[in-house]
Amino acid sequence: MTSIDLATPGGVTLALLPEVVLSAWSLVVLLVVAWRHRTEADARLAGWLSFVGLVTAGAAQLWLWLIHATPAGLPQMVALDAFRFAGNAIILLMAAISVLLSLGYLERERMAVPEYYPLMLMATVGMMFLAGAEDLIVVFLGLEVMSIAVYVLAGFNRRSIFSAEAALKYFLIGAFASGFLLYGIALVYGATGTTNLTLIGATLASGAGPLMARLGLGLLLIGFAFKVAAVPFHMWAPDVYDGAPTPVTGLMATGVKAAGFVALTRVLVEAFPSMLSLWQPVIAILAIATMIVGNLVALSQRNIKRMLAYSSVAHAGYLLVAVWAGTRFAAGSVLLYLLAYGLTTVASFGILASLGQDGERTVGNDDIAGLGSRRPWTALALSICMLSLLGFPGTFGFIGKWYILQAAVSRQQMILPVILVLTSVISAGYYLPVVMAMYMKPGRAESVLAAGSRLGRFAGVAVAVSVAAVILFGVWPAPAIDGGLRSGGTLVEAPAPLAAQE
Amino acid sequence: MTGFLASIGYGQWALHALILLPLIGIIPVLLVPVAAAKRVALVITVAEFVISLGLWWAWQPAAGMQLVTSLPWIPRLGVSYAVGLDGISLFMVLLSTGLMPLAVLSSYTYITKYERPYYALLLAQAVGMIGCFIATDLFLFYVFFELLLIPMYFLIGIWGGANRLYAAIKFFVYTMLGSLLMLVAILVMVWKVAAVTGQLSFSYATLLANAGAVGGAAPWLFAAFALAFAIKVPIFPLHTWLPDAHVEAPTAGSVLLASVLLKVGTYGFLRFAVPFFPSVALSPTVTALMVTLAVVGIIYGALVALVQPDFKKLVAYSSVSHLGFVMLGIWSGTVQGVQGALMVMISHGLSTGALFFLIGMMYERRHTRDIAAYGGIARVVPVFGILLTVVALSSIGLPGLNGFVGEFLVLLGSFGSHPGATTIATTGVIFAAAYLLWAIQRILFNRLDRPENEGMLDLNPRELVVLIPLVAGIVWLGLYPGPVLRRMEPSARQFVETTAAGHAAGAMAEAGQ
């Protein structure tokens, strides 16, 4: 336990060390890029510099975590607890993997423009602020810093009209969502006179809260639902995920989603615990709709990237089940699931990126037929990813789902878990055909894979490490579960029913 | 023997070795040259069987779990790696380990593509099967239960017949639907029990001792468990995945599916569904439902088998019929009935396994399983003819062979409690004689009217090595089932007595309200 005094500039810098490091570093990279932005080697240099920055920020984050940094007094703007550290660690990990995937991808798609990497770093800084926000203003700031960078990244492939469509759609919807969020913040401020989450919680603690606060909560929920792509606010997600360059899609589906869910959990648990009976039914309905629609629509997708986009909508539904529970257990399960889902998804998008050309809009199940005999390791890795997304025992995805189920069951809730598992069965209908195509169908000579379209050594290493982690934590989940539970515990202090044997 | 086993500390490592050996064995099978893969797999499975044989002596005929071990796995959530063996699982483990070398040996010439992954998947299947039977932690059991799916999915999907993709995904989705609902039920039960004991625990013993804590949720939880196992058994009308999966699977896959995987379902009823919720499981409504479905399965399976033109499909439907007897025995409420159910589980494993092996051998020679494509081949392949006849007679339930013992005990045990149902079930035995004898007659004995059958080769030594142990088991269990029955008796008695007591207590509590 190291107490950090947030009243001094030094203390604040220390508390925000990872964000400070990464922000400064992103400017340094931008400066380097200003001079060196002509050749592919320059793009590679920027990529590696960014990777170093992310690793450094990760190290700073780890250090804060290891010394158990806690604030002296009330945290003003950004939280200083293990829940933020864990969320940031997940975001940094996803960003680092995405950078490694981008190195070869940008060259292959002939868009090796080094400005890509500073944008990725800035998006990551935004995600970290969003995930750690202790104040609604910081929520908004983090969200905008993240979103604006991601709008640009989504449209980064200037030769593809789909990429442009993705950027425009994401921008319009994103602006719309930000509007809702901002209006919600204003109403909550009007009702409570503060934007600090803990103070809002204290002010609202008595009674059900005034109408203005309830309206504000509703608008906040809509804003978040847009950002995490919960049904019925998900319409943008498939087109955007599909059109954006694949490593960016990977980052959007994992990092952006992680930041959104961490922030949503924190806002609900810290600022609105007294209005539990108000937001729980809303989250439950969102969760049910998201699980059912996401899974059903994913069933009918023909190309794999779009299928993964819808499946990420479905996974947002599973995560909402965890948010619904609102206990320490649930907060831990949000983190654990984000890590499990993130590792698997980012690896899947990495493999997908290595398979096709032209933004992989074309890679369907028929195109990967026979992959099992032509590229056995790639096929094995993708199979493990599919099984993990399906939630099959032995993979990290199962541990995540199992943990979410526990969180819901521990609140005496049966309907949400049952819908969760039933929709998981539906998801077998689109994850398994991928496996089936790779191993059980004969390959075609003219498939898109004929061209040597690998992404290079480092992307391969990143994917291999992620897949290995998916298996490792699937078989030996105790450390991940401990970490998740302990980090969740810093957010929700009231012991969950049966505090799970502290 | 007992002294020797004790001197090598057999009891401490045997069960772990049974799981670890095939798991680790996957690595050499994948790494050796293609031609050697099958031999390595054979060595591993034979070693596995030899290790498992010691259980026969190391395990003492008594009720309750023996050779238990429990190591923490996810301590915070009460999950442990816990294994143990009782009189029910002992024979299931021996059946699994005994069939594995035969499954490998029977694939020697049948499998010609992707040999290394094939044998690796067979070993993975063995891990799941044995794990299911010895796990005494519900989380561990669930993991193994699901692990059964993946290898079989690939075995059917890659090495299966023409319609294999459909069969594979149907098998997977059906089973997964049931098992995921069971997962929710397990979690609900764990949290309800934890509310009483103050400790999260997935341990079988803890859950069994405190199963009363589930209260009013018991019917729902029983339904979830029962659905998962009923799909696996399969109980009519949830059986439709079975003919597809059986027919499309390669020989070894069909054998393991019929002989072991279906038993996981009935084992689940004996181990979990009924002992956890006796007041629901043995209530008049549920009993009537299960007994009716069992009898419907017996008759329906037999009638559908009667009209199958495909011999493999015929045997597949006969499984539906035989497993009906197991379900009837479980719900008989008598020690004889439960012992009979266990005997049918073993007998069906041996007889149907042997039948699938024989069908595979026919198929390798003539590339058809159509009964009409054969006829009079007993004259061409006499050894094959003799073995097929013996195995078919055992499946029918001829006295002196193994099938008779189990079915007789089931009928004897259930007649007292369900006379009407038992009477109808008895006709199932007659139908079994009808469909199998008729099939055999058309395959072996009619006129030899097809020239292409005249050149059929009789069984080679390797195929005899596959079949002889099974036939020996069939005869031994038929003539001298005493040692087996003696070992299963305490567990069967415990099952009957504790569930009856639980049911009575539940009924009293209900009457009290």
Give an account of the 3D structure.
The complex is a heterodimer of chains A (502) and B (513). Chain A has 502 residues and is mostly helical. Chain A has helices at residues 9-15, 17-35, 40-66, 82-108, 116-132, 136-154, 161-192, 197-204, 211-227, 236-243, 246-271, 276-299, 304-325, 328-355, 371-374, 376-390, 396-409, 415-440, 457-475, 478-491; strands spanning 2-4, 69-71. Chain A has one domain (2-491). Chain A has a two-stranded parallel ribbon. In chain A, helix 5 runs parallel beside helix 11 and helix 12 packs antiparallel against helix 13. Residues 494-502 of chain A have low confidence and may be disordered. With 513 residues, chain B is mainly alpha-helical. Chain B has helices at residues 2-7, 10-31, 34-53, 55-58, 89-106, 115-134, 138-147, 149-159, 164-197, 204-209, 218-232, 241-248, 251-276, 278-281, 284-306, 311-330, 335-366, 382-396, 402-415, 419-445, 451-454, 461-479, 482-512; strands at 66-74, 79-85. Chain B has a two-stranded antiparallel sheet with strand order 1-2. In chain B, a hairpin with a 4-residue loop joins strand 1 (66-74) and strand 2. The longest helix of chain B is centred in the middle third of the chain and has 34 residues, at 164-197. Classes of the chains: A mainly alpha (502), B mainly alpha (513). The A-B interface holds A 373, 387, 392-394, 402, 405-406, 409-410, 414, 417-418, 421-422, 424-425, 428-429, 432-433, 436, 439-441, 477-478, 481-482, 485, 497-498, 500-501 and B 73-78, 114, 142-143, 146-147, 150, 153-154, 157-158, 164-165, 168-169, 172-173, 176-177, 180-181, 183-184, 187-188, 191, 194-195, 198-200, 220.
